Amino acid sequence: MNVIFISPQFPHYYYNFCLRLKERGARVLGIGDTPYDGVDDNTKNALDEYYYIPDLQNYEDVYRAVGFYTAKYGKIDWIESENEYWLYLEAHLRTDFNVTTGPKLVDMDQLRHKSKMKDVYQSAGIPVAKYAYLDSLETGLHFAREVGYPVIVKPDDGMGASCTYKLTSDEEFQKIYPTLDQNTQFIVEDYVPGNVETFEGITDSHGNILMSTSHVMCDPVMDMVNEHLDTTFYQQPVFASDIYDIGERTVKAFGTKSRFFHFEFIRLTEDKDYLGKKGDLVGLEVNMRAPGAYIPDMMNLAYDVDVYTIWADMILYDQCFYDINRQYWVGYAGRRKDVQYALSNEQIMKRYGQFIALEDDVDVALAEAMSDHIFLFRTKDKEKLFKIMHEITQHAYTKRLSRK
Asked: Do the record's keywords include Nucleotide-binding (predicted)?
């Protein structure tokens, strides 16, 4: 089997996807924008061959690379990146090279545009926030006055919380609107009071869920980015829960087959007239790729499995060979480099080293949402998890240090 992996060198831990495929017997062919000498040994060893392109956004060059691999090795069976930034590129290549094992260009609207996602959610009976296309300031102000402030302004086709704003008045709307990229379609939507809960996992070619889990964001990602908060979230039980039920319905509604997926919902913290009661779940958005922020590793820690292998086995054998049995609570705590904390990294490791599974620096391009330095930790009980999370993120002062 020939598998092309786009950008296997970034994020740096994505070599795991390639390595498990190679170990299982697939031929793994990389295409990336880092010169070969700059690619780390883990990635090099996980690939059968690497094709360097200075700019992955130059489609002609990427097309030529896939053509080269096709001429050398035969028909390409899979094209993946597991990175939201390259989903259009994957789909374009699958369309042009008739690779049938993933979404093509015709599928991209409902997988990338927030407005189209809402239509699919609603088709499955899942409530979503009201919205309008932000075609003018007047349109936005009219919508905001109709539903009431606060409202959220964000790109219809965007990644993460980039260029996303929570506005609380006409004055804020009038201030933000001129700063928006006029070449980007924005939407304005009713604010949903609640916390984000995720549902992620892997499906087979029939849309059956092979493995899944869920995480609770302690703060909205939008606030983590815009307010420069420490990034904290944790894994929660998923089976026989409402998050599993709504997640399974979303898998079916979007026709999620042979995919690693990452869905986001909001659990209401108060009643919302047309959406539901406090505690109900509301559809937010879908991502047809592996979750970021080391969540695959958190899945491994919670279930004592290897999701990279589960993903590879799905591609090669269309099944999972693991017994899926959750055993631990797992947390993520990210620190900002411009904040002084009550405990140093060394003190955290000395105090909680037996619980900490990973300590790592985050790539600069991802640190805005993920924080600069992170800890993954697991415990047998929820209370211990929150104690560790609190001590990792406890600030030494109430004021932040100035950025340098």
From this structure: yes
> Which residues does residue 356 pair with via DSSP β-bridges, in sequence order?
377
Residue where one domain finishes, among candidates 148, 166, 190: 190
- Residues 179 and 230 grouped into a single domain: no
Q: Burial-class residue 123 by CB neighbours within 10 Å (0-12, 13-18, 19+).
A: exposed
Give the domain extent around 147.
Answer: 130-190
Is residue 41 within 8 A of residue 16, CB to CB? The reply is no
Residue 49, helix vs strand vs coil: strand
Q: E strands within 186-307?
A: 186-190, 194-203, 209-217, 231-236, 260-268, 281-287
Q: Beta partners for 379?
A: 329
Amino acid at 114: K
Exposure pattern of 301-324 as b/e (b: 16+ CB <10 Å)? Answer: bbbebbbbbbbbbbbbeeebeeeb
Give which of 278, 248, 285, 286 is closest to 129, Cα–Cα: 285
For position 344, which CATH number holds?
3.30.470.20
Taking only the tens place, the pLDDT of each residue in 110-132 is 999 999 999 999 999 999 999 99
pTM of the model: 0.92
Query: What is d(CA 297, CA 404) in angstroms, rounded to the nearest whole number?
Result: 32
Q: Would strands 49-52 and 27-32 be described as parallel, antiparallel, or unpaired? A: parallel
Q: Model confidence over 168-220: pLDDT tens digits?
A: 999 999 999 999 999 999 999 999 999 999 999 999 999 999 999 999 998 87
Tally of structural domains, the chain? 3
Examine the domain organization and report whether 335 and 266 are in the same domain.
yes
Is residue 232 assigned to a domain?
yes
Examine the domain organization and report whether 145 and 221 are in the same domain.
no
> What does the block give as tokens for 392?
């990792």
Q: What backbone phi and psi angles, to 5 degrees, belong to 349?
A: -65, -40
Whether residue 210 sits in one domain with residue 183: no
- Look at residues 190, 206, 223 and tell me which one is the last residue of a structural domain: 190
